[in-house]
Amino acid sequence: MYTVQHARDLQCKGMPRPELFRAARSCYGVGDHQHRLFLHEMPFGPLTCLVVGAECVCYRESVINNKGDAMTILPPGVSARQFAKALAEFAAVVGPDWVLSSEEDLQPYRDHFSLLKDQPDELQASAAVCPADVAQVQAIVRIANRYKTPLFAISTGKNFAYGGPAPNVRGSVTVDLKRMNRVLELDEKRHFVLVEPGVSYMDLYRYIQERNLKVWVDTADVGWGGLMGNALEHGVGYTLGPYRDHFSAHCGMEVVLPDGELMRTGMGALPGSGGWQDYKHGFGPDPAGLFAQGGFGIVVKMGFRLMPQPEHWRTGLVTVPKRRDLIPMVDTVNYLTDLFIIGEPLYGSPLRILREDKAFLQAADSFDEAALDRVAAEHSLHSWQVELQFYGSEKTTLANWEWAKELMLRNIPGAQCFDGESLPVPVTQEQIERSTRPYPAPYASQMRRNVMHGVPKLYAWWMPSRTDDFPDSWNQSHLGLFSVVGRSGAAVLQAQRDFDRVARDMGSKPAMPYAISTPLNWNQSAFLLGNGAFGSATRNEATPQSKLDQLKLLREVLKRNAAMGYGDYRAPPLLQDAVADQYSFNNHALRRFNERLKDAADPNGILLPGRGGIWPKALRALRGAIRK
Amino acid sequence: MKKSAVLMSLLLCSGSGAAIAADVPAAAAAGKNVFEIRCAPCHAAGLGGDPGRDHLPGTDALRIKYKGTTVPALLERRTDLTEPVLKVYLRHGSWSMPPFRKTEVSDADIANLAAYFAVTSLAAERK
Ligand SMILES: Cc1cc2nc3c(=O)[nH]c(=O)nc-3n(C[C@H](O)[C@H](O)[C@H](O)COP(=O)(O)OP(=O)(O)OC[C@H]3O[C@@H](n4cnc5c(N)ncnc54)[C@H](O)[C@@H]3O)c2cc1C
Q1: Which residues of B have a CB under 8 Å from any CB of A?
Q2: Distance (Å, rounded) from C-alpha A214 to C-alpha A486?
Q3: Which member of B1, B42, B65 has the closest CB to residue A61?
Q4: Which of the two residues, A88 and A585, has the higher pLDDT score?
Q5: Largest CB tally within 10 Å, which of A29, A145, A176, B100?
Q6: Would strands A192-195 and A183-187 be described as parallel, antiparallel, or unpaired?
Q7: Is the CB of A294 under 6 A from ligand 1?
């Protein structure tokens, strides 16, 4: 079954230069018709190559010796010798198996989608330390202070599209909290959970299912992420407003501060309080916001409000004929949203199906509203749609949907309403996966039933993956770019024009005209509009240079967006300074205030420096420094 | 990986790991658990064994990748996912699949996964 062969004899994409292998002292090969694996003993250590068909991936391992001279990435300003000592101290705390510093072990701490992948300045950790409890986190922070070693923290570490597990500062030591993965308390009657950092959405869902508890997890689209990490990124989900804004849904936290001290927020600050997860404000200023998108501490426990399981779920679709009807449509949806009648509304445009139609494209490109209405009418299509979802009992969801229909028909002449699905909760796996949709063609449902029911999955991973449309590529620079837009139809119509103008100026074209792009109502009170031409990009054509070009382009787009009053809600480390630059009121008063706090709380600047665009004094020169 | 570990891996994947063989059922059972928690969300069979486009991106990606070959899209039917091969995929990622950290999938988990795939692929071959 196995063949032994030398890797250098193979011709495959990604194989290092053949000369490299001349230095090989020996080579072992195993494999079959699909894979061949080669292990070479090279002067610099082992070199492993995996050949799959015509492709090849090779990697080398470097071992850190006690002189520290084999290390390739170091924390800024720390000598190899000092760093080796710091690693030894970390090992004394967590055990040698949980200090990871070989190239092999650090691979998974890189951002798989980085625009700087394999570049000399790629944001990579120098080591990872994996504590098992709070005391170990405190000890790690104290050691880092002694060695002035920047720390980065990850909880579940799946922050893909926003930097993955990679740090803001190359050479940071990543504190990987995944081993701390207990659900500490879940109250089914008061509807909260208190978790450790490593608890993923899937873990919590499993915990709930195993105990048949009647609460839901408001999950992100990718269920391998976790409650804590996602919330600390201001991440979002898909059920009712108070739950789907994940940071707002948090209720109290325990944090290791930059000097290693332990602090609790809200009622947690009152010893013996029985209401930590019930009243998150406690008394006085609540610093909780400093720990989200900001490196003021390492959060080690966090509470979250949980939605009680409803008895029934119902959906309905509303369509409106004219372009300007978006304005009363959004007003009506806002009314229902803020009365907590509906879950996340899903906006769309039925005109999507005209994307190949010349007359439509011409009207869309010129934002000619009369022409767009004419084209829509000619095709018997409505201009906009919104899908509503109702949680409650069978009767209340029906009554609420009837009321929503009444409002829509009253407020918008020509509106149409279609009954959607009506399912008792919990839904079955078959109901989640069912591909038949309730509305008459051409109106399509965009409901992803799993997330609407708080069932964590990885369905959304098709986005960066190989698909039938792109069988020979994957999206190597999948990243999110979403600007906050006022929650009104008029603001959306204006933002479409503004984003289109920027795209044109930059020579980019979105797959779908901006004239029909629709807002995401992830946060109850805000709209986010995707920068369609720039967000996820570069499939087939991705090269190291094209990724660098994209980075440059994105920074310019962020600058231009800010000049028009648009700011992003979130960004990968590579773009965090550019986004922080957008929020510049009164000569960056907000950032200056945050940095004054940072310098006071973290004088050595060791905790997540650069996160959220907040740089400690010692490393402030790094602001915006990468690929300026 | 030290040289001894390399040799060990080679021995194991050439079927000479007698000590391991005795433990296979326990290892495979542990591997099944790892598969269900870590791999199945992307790589399982869809309902009714159907690799579902919308729901299982890993299964779907491999269906497209191996179109026109005899290589199955489902990991549990593969005969070639030995420990060293799994290690490369898991620690380095492959295309859109990002790598997994030791805190998520330990080296022991990988060995157990390999034991599990050895059992499931055998069962699939017999079918
Ligand atoms: C296809 C696709 C779909 C996606 N869908 C969604 C979605 O629906 N909703 C959404 O919100 N996002 C989405 N994302 C983005 C992202 O993948 C998720 O937000 C994911 O949940 C974030 O990773 P995580 O939960 O593992 O957090 P982590 O990676 O653990 O943490 C995120 C960041 O928070 C900080 N941090 C983490 N833990 C701590 C701590 N204990 N103390 C201090 N700081 C800490 C760190 O800076 C870290 O980088 C999507 C991405 C892709 C590619």
Answers
A1: 1, 3, 6-7, 10, 13-14, 37, 41-42, 46-47, 52-58, 60-61, 64-65, 67, 71, 80, 82, 84-85, 88-89, 91-96, 98-104
A2: 35
A3: B1
A4: A585
A5: A176
A6: antiparallel
A7: no
Residue A376 scores a pLDDT above 60: yes
Nearest to A369 by CA among A498, A509, A516: A516
Mean pLDDT of A465-482: 85
Q: At what angle do helices A326-338 and A489-505 cross, to 10 degrees?
A: 120
Among B1, B4, B100, B101, the strongest candidate for a mutation testing the A interface, having the largest count of A CBs within 10 A, is B101
**Cβ-nearest to B96 among A35, A100, A464:** A464
CA A152 to chain CA centroid, Å, is 17
Q: Which range (A221-225, A532-536, B44-48) has the least confidence?
A: A532-536
Ligand 1 centroid to Cα of residue A476, in Å, is: 18
Structure tokens, B115: 């034991």
Cα dist from A358 to A362, A372, A591, whole Å: 6, 12, 47
Q: Which amino acid residue places its CA nearest to atom 43 of ligand 1?
A: A298
Beta-carbon neighbour count of residue B79 at 10 Å?
A: 17
Residue whose pair of structure tokens reads 């905790």 in the numeric block: A607
Residue for token pair 């749609």: A385
> What is the maximal distance between C-alpha atoms in chain A?
81
Longest Cα–Cα distance of chain B, Å, equals: 44
Q: How far apart are CA A255 and CA A289, in angstroms?
A: 12
- Average pLDDT over every residue of A390-401: 98
- Report the atom number in ligand 1 closest to the C-alpha of A166: 49
Contact between chains at A474 and B95 (C-beta distance less than 8 A): yes
CB atoms B98 and A34 under 8 Å: no
Of A432, A436, A454, A433, give the one whose Cα is nearest residue A445: A436
Distance to chain B for A435, nearest Cα, Å: 9
Comparing CB atoms, the residue among B56, B67, B102 nearest residue A100 is B102
pLDDT digits (tens, 9 = 90+) for A515-538: 999 999 999 889 998 876 665 555
CA distance A58 to B83: 17
SS3 category, A265: coil
Please, what are the domains in chain A? Answer: 7-176 (3.30.43.10), 183-308 (3.30.465.10), 312-462 (3.30.70.100), 482-571 (no CATH)
Which domains, and CATH codes, for chain B?
2-126 (1.10.760)
Q: Position A329: which residue type?
A: M
> Cα separation of A561 and A499, whole Å?
8
Judge whether A491 and A561 are in contact, CB under 8 Å. Answer: no
What are the residues whose beta carbons fall under 8 Å from the beta carbon of B40, sequence distance 6 or more? none
ipTM of the complex: 0.88
Distance CA A183, CA A199 (A): 7
β-bridge partners, A304: A193, A250
Place of tokens 């470097």: A62
How far is ligand 1, taken at its centre, from the CA of residue A461, in Å?
Answer: 14
Give the integer Cα–Cα distance in Å for B101 and A102. Answer: 12
The pLDDT tens digits for A298-319 are: 999 999 999 999 999 999 999 9
Pocket test for ligand 1, best of A222, A262, A290, A579 (most atoms within 8 A of CB): A222
Residue A143 per-residue DSSP state:
H
Instruction: Say if A464 is an interface residue toward chain B (CB within 8 Å).
Output: yes
Closest in B13, B60, B64 to A30, CB measured = B13
Whole-model pTM: value is 0.89
CB of residue A222 inside a 6 A radius of ligand 1: yes
For A445, the token pair is 């449902």
Residue written as token pair 């602001």:
A623
B55 and A457 Cβ atoms separated by less than 8 Å: yes
Name the helix (H) or strand (E) containing A99: strand A99-100
